[in-house]
Hints:
This protein has 12 helices and no strands. By secondary structure, it is mainly α. The protein starts with a helix and ends with a helix.
Amino acid sequence: MSLELEFCRDEYSDYIIYRELAKRESNPEFKKILEAFAEHEKGHYEFWRELAGGCSGADWLKVNLVMVSRRLLGLTFTLKLLERHESRTIEAYKSYLERLEGEHRRRLEEIINDELTHEKTWLNNLAEREGLVRYLGFIALGLADAIVEITGVHTGFLGATATTLVAGVAGLIVGLSAAIAMAGAAYLQAKHGGVEKSLNPVVSALVTGVSYIVAVVSLAIPYFLTKSMLLAFSLSLILAIALIFSFAFYGAVVNDREFRREALENVIILFATAIAAFLFGTFLGEVTGIRGLAH
């Protein structure tokens, strides 16, 4: 397949994606932005179709995956993920620019400018208005604190007792109490202007609390499925790392940050907490004799 045909089919797929997203969008302001995106991509597609001598057919697997992402992960994340692909495309366009002269070169320069300026500006405007993204900080607060704290609780019990049920119940009790405390702190922070003033304090508290509880329950489940403390802890730790990686990737895409550094920092904090909790739990288990009683 020639580069011209490849670029043409890629732009046509993007045009279909934005058109379908616009059709499904209920927010009038977001719908307008998506329709503008679709028109831009249509113009890009027509340019490459002229150079390629014609092309047709969208990548419907890509289109359908984007629709699923929009429903599950929000509009901003979906569009910014598409933008990451666009960044690679822009570099390819810049390389191809050397082959063109005259009007074709001028039009491709306009396309590159569209990708670099207009669409990025619209995306940032959209990100500032989408509810899920506006409360992203509170979701991160709930998840990150819960993952570290509850993993610490479970690790402490790994050193203190051999009973998985005790560790699982303890994690749930500590987690529920901490979720209420974190939700209260988030409410006060939003109410007194510690974050963006337009954020609803009640929603901020709910988002924080629910995120915390989701993480707590997820990490506690393995302790109710097996009597092997080591297996339960291993599964819970894998879930914790998966949650860290998933949210770090989501946040990195939405906020245009580097994924690997953010994920690595969180994993280091998690393991440092786990080691400290295990050593302290082992010490308490030996001193109090709890470990010998828990079978």
